[in-house]
User: What shape does this take?
Amino acid sequence: MNVLHRPPVQGNSERVTRMRHVLVAMRGDKLALFALLIFAFYCLVALLAPLLAPYDVNSTEFMNLENAELAPAWQTGDTRFLLGTDTQGRDLLSVILHGTRLSLTIGVCAVLIQVFLGVGIGLLSGYMGGRLDAFLMRVADIQLSFSTMMVAIVVLAVFQTLFGHAAYQQLAMLMLIIVLGVAEWPIFARTVRACVFAEKEKEYIDAARILGVSKARIMLRHLLPNTVSPILVILTIQIANAIVAEAALSFLGLGMPPNQPSLGALISSGFNYLFSGAWWISVFPSVTLILMIFVMNLLGDWLRDHLNPQVTRG
Amino acid sequence: MLSFIGRRLLQAMFVLLIISFVSFMIQDKMGDPVRQMVGQSVTLEQREALQQELGLNDPMLIQYGRFLGRAIQGDLGTSYYYKEPTIDVIASRLPATLELSFAALVLVILLAIPLGVFAAIHPKNLLSRAVLLFSTLGLSVPIFIVAVFLMYFFAIEWGILPSFGRGETTSVFGLWQSGLFNRDGLRHLLLPSLSLAFVLTPIFIRLIRAEMTDVLQSDYIRYAWAKGISAPRIYFIHALKNTMLPVITVGGIQLGTLVAYTILTESIFQWPGMGLLFMDAVTRVDVPLISTYLIFVGVIFVVTNTLVDVVYSLVNPRVRIPGYS
Amino acid sequence: MLRRLLIILCLGLSSMMCLAVDLRVALDADPISLDPHEQLSEGGIQYSHAVFDPLVRWRQDGTFEPRLATSWEVQDERTLRLHLRQDVRFHSGNPLTAEDVLFTIERLKSSIDFKALFNVVQDVDKIDDYTVDIHTNHAYPLLLNILAYVFVVDKTFYEGRSEIVKFGQTFASTNVSGSGPFTVRDRVVGQRLTLVRNPDYWDTQSVGNVEQLELLPIRSDSTRLAALLTGGVDVISPVAPIDIVRVQRTPNVKLLALTGTRIVMLQMNQARRVEFQDIRVRRAMNLAVNQALIVEKILRGYGEPAGQLSSAAFLGHVSDLVPQSDLERARELMKEAGYQDGFRVTMMAPNNRYMSDERVALAASAMLAKINIQVDLKTFPKAQYFQFFDQQAADIMMLGWQSDTFDSNNIYEFVLACRDTDTGMGAYNAGRVCDRKLDDAIVLANQEMDVAQRVALLRGIEMRAVDQAWVIPLYWQPIIWASKQHVDLESVVNFLNFPYWGDLHVSVP
Assistant: This one.
């Protein structure tokens, strides 16, 4: 592959070339292409869940205890419920489609907040150093000591005093995104800071400084690109963590309301069924989640390998 | 160096102050501790009297002041449920958690370093592709799924290993109840530490491979090849040493993940460590114990992060940590 | 060493009861203290039955069995004479006398948890060393019910250091001298409580042969079940309904399920919502909820669908009051009331207090949605839930009430009576029901000594409550245990869920 010779020009043309390089390489790697297709499928499903789901989840008929725990269609021959039903008699396929939509939205949005906060603070902390660094990193220590749960309890309390209980159902998702976003930014911040430390002593940064390039520009144009690789490595892990953490919160009464189950909540409640023989209740949501995270991780890996300016292949 | 550590200590005190303050401010959101300790027919009046007695009705700041006053004398409070100083309660559960984390870390190191290095050295090898694929897969499976499956198969279906608790322990110097020195204790340790290792190993395999790959591309390694230094020496002395820097950093950061994972693993395997203690304390609204646990975890974070920074600059002398020279 | 000797001795005797066995029991909670008078909770009373003896105890058929009291007779309307067993020694070696009973009841009257039950006892007179007279403030039909809570403690052992402190270490919370079938060997708080058989136990007729009893708290349902299936423990309780199938599928493990008396219900707050003040709406809601379906699907057929508050074991139970569910009629009623388009309400429920509580609440909310009542359901762990319950923070609240006296009137007092912070009546009345006539009947039923008249009174209250549809009763929660086949659990577990471990016989394979 001879596309790899990057012209030594800064700016747009380089980015365009890099994107083209990614696309070309993608076509060559079947696994990555496959992962991309599945991921696109997930995104599509999340977007179109209300249209794709065989049942209307908001209908009063949707949750019918009469239908509780029916096995998948190929076991019972009952074609109404392709993947069977859950304990409340909800069509599992519809619930999973909506759960995927919820989980993906919560996970991605929360991690975006994490990245935004974490990268910003990490860059500042690493490049500025000194007191600012000490202060920001101690804030990070404090933040990490309080598990997500504690943050959730505080945010919930604030929300309750602001909006009351009745509004909870409408705001639950927003609240969760904020909670999960705020709770784990230090992971990004510390990683970025470590990268910046290693990078900022290098000659090209010194050169830029001497040439009078502004601090903001050095951070954003020179240091930031070098942090992309570790960020991508943890990004996908964090999305998975956020989705699972959301499930743990629902147990504390802090997650999504029980009548709008997310994928994580489905799995954690499904796990009680492992012993009962109603395997589909735990297996389908778990497989859905694991596959989703798996392809995200594959893509993350792959992107990391191909975006990293240091790595040259050929 | 000394002034660096001194400054860090000062900062640590500040961190702990804030942690204790925040945990104090949120405690009435966690439930009513009195309610957990009395029967259903105890009247509201009597419950209020008890709250009064515990000083729970005083303004938060006064309660906090009282707490600080005692904390300075080394008294972080008495657990409502255990009725012992919270520090003692945590100390009695600490060995279990440390042994669990230690066992998991040993497994992680034994697996992650050889596999990660191998995958970096031979990127095209089928085995290293398989290792990578499996580590990606392992990364995608939430820990409670791993733990429950391990328990289901090894304990219930096949009946090879025990499913809960710590088993027999032996006393080491009368200070430490250890499960590492007898068969029963080790058997009990296996499943929980495997679950922990299962989710931590992929992270480290990926990290080591990624960093090692970067290092192997760098100029000084090329120079080393050109100089004719032997392959093992390049891989394991020159390259691995530089790989370990980010690995240690991220390892330190992953400590938070480890704490969170021990809470889950201990709950699933009824492992009598700090994580289970914390979950129980939350259920019982044992506020003094919750606060102490948070402060304790805070101490661990500050200490490891300081250590990580020190190790960081030892391994890579080019890096200057602010305040440390 | 001593135990080995004992076993050898027993083998020599070759008597059946002597084949001593060790038993490990995993429960969802452990007693918070070794002091039997510190907390009135299921775990606490279960522990008390093992290490102490009550004056009387419940038989499985709901009658009373003499224990430390061998017999009793009514002296007058307010006095009961008790004759005490004469051959009882405490674990400390001290003999049990009337003094100990006086001391114990005095202590109960000062215990925060037991106070409410024992306030009715005016004083206790010692007649001789083995006879006491118990005087009550007024005629009290439930005196024996509360005497079942008198776990007699050793006066000489505790005197002078018998204070009960809820939040702190006391002598009594760590030191024990009871007269029960077991003594405490070792307690690691939150991890295990080890009891060993009391070799000098007075009840030599007991078939119990458990030599060492280990009680382990395991909070998670799945972990507890796994412990039984892997053989780590011999007995567990409770078993989550969804795990019942698994227990039944396992060959050497058996299930024991009883109908309990804890009534799980939904309370509709009339002070928060005008809609709930309309009896047609309340009736419609009662009709919309299908109790039988909840029990069948969520509790796997265990537990009893309820159309009233008193379980069949209680005097207030009216057998005609079966749960009704009729969606058509419910919709009609809503239309009559002018709410055919429905309304939106909030509901709260715990998620770790009662069996499958969250699932039940969700199912009930879906059933209410069918008559256009949109329910915004929120669930909390019990620690936070009961704070919200006290604040009556939602329009519909879930409550599971276990009568401490095992009598209907206790439910009425706490759940239906008008709220009164002075007397504590109506403390769990989250529906804000208030009916003065009903209150009078409740007070009367607490003093009526004639059984037939008392039954009539209680049933009157029950029927009025159902007629007014003040609450939505759901079901009586089942008591579910599981054990290895050779444990004869059936003979010691009762509808109160207080197993008498001392009498447990385990056959040795």
Observations:
- Strands of chain B lie at 170-172, 176-178.
- The first helix of chain B runs from residue 2 to 25.
- Chain B touches chain C through 48 residues (CB under 8 Å).
- Chain B has a mean pLDDT of 84.
